Amino acid sequence: MKQLLWCLVIGVACWVLAISCRRSTLDVQNLTPNSVYYWRTDLQLDSTERDFLTRYNINKVYCRYFDVVINNDAEGPVPNATITFSDTLPAGLELVPTVYITENCMHQWHEGLAERLVRRIIQMNETNDIHGVHEIQIDCDYTAKSRRTYYRFLEDVRKQLSEVQHPVSITQLSTTIRLHQLSMPAPPVDYGVLMIYNTGDLLRFNERNPILDLRDVKPYLRHLADYPLPLAAAYPVFSWLRTIHGVHVTHTTDADEVLRVKEAVEAERPSLRQAIITYHLDKENINRYKPETYEKIYHH
User: Fold this and answer.
1) What are the backbone angles phi and psi of residue 222, rounded to the nearest 5°?
2) CA distance 119 to 161
3) CB 133 within 8 A of CB 166
4) Angle at CA 237, nearest 5°, toward 192 and 221?
């Protein structure tokens, strides 16, 4: 009996170890170590931004191509705020077309939306002579109400990627994951980017920084270790300026808070230190922190 019990204990331990190793392997395979988001309406880089890409060994740029929003006149979702390309990325950097879809677009099914989105991305690549695109990313703050429709939409996007003819095969599909979405089933994508910012309540700005506060992140960490999808981690380096009752309020991401959150997140899921993204590439954001801060953020 004792021997059987020991066999059981060893078996369970081996199973847990195997699952842990599998999760770790899944998380780091094919994920680019250092990346940035580019979230402006014109792709145009100055010398400071180009130097940043080189200094911190940035390999991938998630570039917002356009938004998808509800337009009542058009009776459905339409593209909005499409990027222009006045410049090109330095050679060797991978560009990932990224599309932000408002959550209310997913309150009901829109036939043909996935095909139109994929064709628009391919057309933009061809028009702007953008080559070597192998992945697209969809960004949506989906909720319990919109999750099923959104997941069905992602499945349709993947289907369209295999059916729509284009010069380069786009084989990878990713999506953003907000902290509150960690408690939901995982979406049907190759991996997710955990968006570790905009974590607070905008109405409680006197108490906490709505961009990032460890106290707002902690309640979600219990879901992180077992989340069944490979994950990269995105951290904020931006600031907000808002007007509340006629008063200008500036929220700045505190460097120490970013590093504290990074440490807490990686304690729960160590593989998150393998793929780091900052949001977003901009000269003002770069100059906001000292170089050693960025070294620590991108430290693996």
Assistant:
1) -65, -20
2) 9
3) no
4) 45
What is the amino acid identity at position 1?
M
Residue given tokens 């099914």 in the structure block: 109
> How far is residue 59's CA from residue 234's CA, in Å, rounded to a whole number?
15
CB 70 within 8 A of CB 96: no
Q: At what angle are helices 113-127 and 147-163 packed, to 10 degrees?
A: 50
The answer to whether the beta carbons of residues 105 and 149 sit under 8 Å apart is no
- Amino acid present at 169: S
3-state secondary structure at position 221: helix
Q: What is the DSSP letter of 183?
A: G
d(CA 237, CA 242): 17
Q: Which residues of 153-177 are buried (b: 16+ CB within 10 A; e: fewer)?
A: bbebbbebbeeeeeeeebebbbbbb
Residue 3 dihedral angles phi and psi, to the nearest 5°: -65, -40
Residue 191 and residue 233 in contact, taking contact as beta carbons nearer than 8 Å: no
What's the first-to-final CA gap in the chain, in angstroms? 46
**Cβ neighbour number for residue 1 with a 10 Å cutoff:** 5
> Per residue in 172-213, pLDDT tens?
999 999 999 999 999 999 999 999 999 988 777 677 899 999
Q: What is the pLDDT of residues 122-176, one digit of tens each?
A: 999 999 999 999 999 999 999 999 999 999 999 999 999 999 876 678 999 999 9
Which amino acid is located at 211 in the chain? I
> Which two tokens mark 145?
């109400």
Query: Is 109 exposed, middle or buried, given 0-12, 13-18 or 19+ CB atoms closer than 10 A?
Result: exposed
How far CA 174 is from CA of 117, 219, 246, 294, in Å, comes to: 15, 25, 40, 25
Tokens describing residue 90:
């330095």
Task: Tokens for 277, please give them.
Answer: 């993204």
